[in-house]
């Protein structure tokens, strides 16, 4: 397997993806697409930030990779594993906000959770995890 400069396998990385987060889209602001991959002794958050301040502006795309410790990942996954998440949440309606999508697992099996702005009752863990991922991914990005 070929590895890039971050130590992530180029040909097999999607196969070993642990988690993916998508936030935003459709309105000006910051939109994220971030994935978590295992490395040799560490993990990587890899993705992009699309930043658009006004409709008439072309989005600025920032691609970024961040090393994260195994402890950070284990704490994040432990929070998710210990959560009691209802399989079928109640519908939520609204007219303003962001869409979120959190996929957990690998190409061999997993689950994808989608919500709009405020999560359904019982899914409160997801925005908490999303915020942790976004904060860690963004800490070295320009404002």
Descriptive account of the structure:
It is flat and about 40 Å long. Helix content is 18%, strand content 35%. The longest helix has 14 residues, at 125-138. By secondary structure, it is of the alpha+beta class. The chain contains two helices and six strands, in the order ββββαββα. Mean pLDDT is 82; it is low at 1-12. The chain has a six-stranded antiparallel β-sheet. The N and C termini lie far apart (36 Å). The chain has a single domain (13-138), classed as Mago nashi protein, CATH 3.30.1560. The chain has helices at residues 70-81, 125-138, and strands at residues 19-23, 29-38, 43-52, 60-68, 99-106, 109-116.
Secondary structure class reads alpha+beta
What's the oligomerization state? single chain
Element pattern in H and E:
EEEEHEEH
* Largest sheet report: 6 strands, antiparallel
Spatial shape: flat
Number of domains: 1
> Architecture in CATH?
2-Layer Sandwich
CATH topology: Mago nashi protein
How large is the radius of gyration? 16 Å
Average predicted confidence as pLDDT: 82
User: Number of DSSP helices?
Assistant: 2
Distance between the termini: 36 Å
Secondary structure layout:
Blueprint: E1 19-23, E2 29-38, E3 43-52, E4 60-68, H1 70-81, E5 99-106, E6 109-116, H2 125-138
Antiparallel strand pairs: 1-2, 1-5, 2-3, 3-4, 5-6
